[in-house]
Amino acid sequence: MDSLQAPVLYHLSSAQSTRVLWALEELALSHGQKFELKSYKRQRGRAPTELQKVFPLGKSPILEIPGVELYRPLNFIDNGDETKRTVVTESRLILQFLSDKYSKGEWVPATEEDRQRDSFFQEFANSTVSVIVDRITYFQIIPVGSPWIVRPLMRAIFHPIEAIFSKDIDGPLTLMERALSDETPWFSGATLGLADFNMIWPLDGASQKKLIDEKKYPKVVGWLKRVRERPAYQNARKKGGSYDLVRYEM
């Protein structure tokens, strides 16, 4: 949309904002869309407090479009800033906003079947796969963040629990394996779409944690390979800095 200024992405290292950065890089390559990237590095695994100046929760990703007010579901929040702007938070909403306002329909599936599939896998990525991977993450990093004197004890307690919950990923991976084919190589269907942008975060995390058995789930591994071979994804990784989804820079 020509009337909108270039979006600004507030990006945090080793964070979900990488998938938004990937989407922006896709738009840059396909439509010449410009955007501004403001990067922040985790501090002992946490987001820096400077992000709270942009949005009170101080989390990333945050997308800002200067000069216009198009989207204000949180207009009850007052940051003490009267600058006219649009601020969108939450990864799935940001990706949908980019699709609606900037992609020129590129990420809208061509068939009704693919539209339903795309909608399902967007929700599945965030409400099922991410929840499982995040739960495993907690059991992995709690011992790492514990005082050194109790760290061996914490590992002894949490690692068996982690092993139990790690098995929960098999069901979703089996479903995803069945969904991918030569005709539907993307979670959005025949072409890359919003479901794929949403899915990369939990599957990158699962991959780094070595939760994906290549022999059992070759199509899922193939999807990851296709994503990682895309120039836009490679650009996002280069610009995004650290991407540690095991220890989160703790």
Automatic annotation (TrEMBL):
Domain GST N-terminal stretches: 4-106
Domain called GST C-terminal: residue spans: 111-250
InterPro entries, alphabetized: DUF7962, Glutathione-S-Trfase_C-like, Glutathione-S-Trfase_C_sf, Glutathione_S-Trfase, Glutathione_S-Trfase_N, Thioredoxin-like_sf
Pfam families hit by this protein: DUF7962, GST_N_2
Family assignment from sequence similarity: Belongs to the GST superfamily.
Protein name stated in the entry: Glutathione S-transferase
Source organism of this protein record: Talaromyces islandicus (Penicillium islandicum)
Lineage of origin: Eukaryota, Fungi, Dikarya, Ascomycota, Pezizomycotina
